[in-house]
């Protein structure tokens, strides 16, 4: 599985070097505006490079929205933003049909596209909207299309949803349904910046002039890099590590700790997400093939929103991240 034809291998090496250069320029441009938070930027970029969607979780005021708008600019994507609120309706996302009358008196319906028709959709505070409205995004995230009144409309390519979410303990939030959480390739936890980064934020953002990001690549170039990532070889060792990790996180697979602590575990989409993001992480770090270390590093962002703990585990104060860390620490070689 990890082998390539010699000429294909040479082509991929040359393509990977060009892609690495472009990714380096993207990282540099983002760092002009977003200070610290390297792992957050990395994980969100990995989700986009892998062709998927990302869910950013953190308290308000940690520059989640700013990161998404910056990425839209830097990656050359046509971006729209929706502020999710309890009274937001599905038609506010997808669009709606309006009845028009021509000069001749003929009436017909015309579809007016909603903000989902963009290459990068920022779903701000997604868990503040009702479950009905949240689910309006489901079809578009999976099928890259929407159906309105029986008509099928394709979404622009590439299409990425970057959603932000407040911690569920906060007032006025609705938990995302499991089916929707599974559509997100990665969940990225956004923590507080360290002191050095916070010092820089204070100095750089309160002066007369503020730094702005510029476009570095185009949407077409992004899709070329996404295709390249899908061509990168994955060794049998890494494939086995992915299977072992995902299966070890499911109850009923013969792992005593998992059976005791996990109520339900990740499905096959988790393995697909690891296959894609491990390749993207290898390229991001200048390597041509992913390693088992990539799988360990990505275990938490890939698995944490795809599993739930038992009541007993929660009562003991365990978190999903604790359980994933102990599973990922096992020997997969």
Automatic annotation (TrEMBL):
Residue span, ATPase AAA-3 domain: 53-186
Pfam families: AAA_3, AAA_lid_2
Keyword Endoplasmic reticulum: no
Keywords: ATP-binding, Nucleotide-binding
GO terms of molecular function: ATP binding; ATP hydrolysis activity
Every ChlI/MoxR AAA lid domain range: 259-325
Record keyword Isomerase present: no
Family to which the UniProt record says this protein belongs: Belongs to the MoxR family.
Protein's UniProt name: ATPase AAA
